[in-house]
Amino acid sequence: MPVAMKITTMLAILAVVFSQAMIILPAKAADPECVILLHGLARTASSMAPMADALRERGYTVVNLDYPSRKHPVEVLAPMAMEQGLSKCPGNSKVHFVTHSLGGILVRYYLAAHTLVRLGRVVMLAPPNQGSEVVDGLGGVPGFSLLNGPAGAQLGVGEHSIPRALGAVDFDLGVIAGDRSVNLILSQYLPNPDDGKVSVASTKVEGMRDFIQVPHSHPFIMRAPLVIEQTVRFLETGKFAHAE
User: Fold this and answer.
1) Is residue 4 assigned to a domain?
2) What is residue 132's three-state secondary structure?
């Protein structure tokens, strides 16, 4: 075989081997999916710590955010909390949200005006999606504003209600509502069943994908093992585990 032909043949063989090697090279690993946790009114990130631990064990990057829930109205808190949380998630990761109470309204408010391409699923725990009658009933009581701040005053059911002005959701949402109360005084202002702060009916919102009711109260629902399990289930499958 002429030398030129041998060289041509060898080059062809090397090209085939090289192209096959390129095919089998592993792709760059994607960033882990990120979950941003938003606590409720007058709470801190520590209230979401058990949820954060469980999600980290499942392999998620977790941002358990502290935000000043009693210092600003929803219009200020929503972009403040959402953008701070998003800045802490890896750049290419899908972003999920798990919220308690007011945290869910911040997500709704922000997403009503912003498109989040990386958005995955959202789980809201005891959200006042239709407001809470407690705010209207006790809003004028001395000390209410001090304890709940400007955002707390916006969570009622009247004409100034932020949640009721937001409309339907257009993202992948699962809602978990509690139906046990440890505050019988506040429950007197609420339609039954309720969790002591929000009625079960008020947690629902048009457009949600799934809903489940659990025997827990508003202050502690985010720490309950059953609720944590159901939250993980929705993040991973898009639905809750309903009893037969």
Assistant:
1) no
2) coil
Give the domain range for residue 132. 32-237
User: β-pairing, 172-178 with 119-125?
Assistant: parallel
Query: Does any domain span residue 21?
Result: no
pTM of the model: 0.86
Instruction: Characterise 58 by phi-psi region: left (phi > 0), alpha (psi -120 to 50), beta (else).
Output: alpha
Three-state DSSP at 178 gives strand
CB 128 within 8 A of CB 239: no
Domains contained in the chain, number: 1
CATH of the domain at 102: 3.40.50.1820
Q: Which long-range contacts (CB under 8 A, 24 or more apart) does 52-60 make?
A: 54/228, 54/232, 55/98, 55/232, 55/235, 58/232, 58/236, 59/32, 59/33, 60/32, 60/33, 60/34, 60/35, 60/96, 60/235
Q: Which helix (H) or strand (E) holds 86?
A: helix 74-87
For residue 136, count CB atoms less than 10 angstroms from its CB and return exposed for 0-12, middle for 13-18, buried for 19 or more.
Answer: middle
Taking the C-alpha atoms of residue 77 and residue 41, their distance in angstroms, rounded to an integer, is 11
Could you tell me if 148 and 70 are in contact, meaning their C-beta atoms sit under 8 angstroms apart? yes
3-state percent helix, strand, coil for the chain, nearest multiple of 5: 40, 15, 45
pLDDT tens track for 161-214: 999 999 999 999 999 999 999 998 999 999 999 999 999 999 999 999 999 999
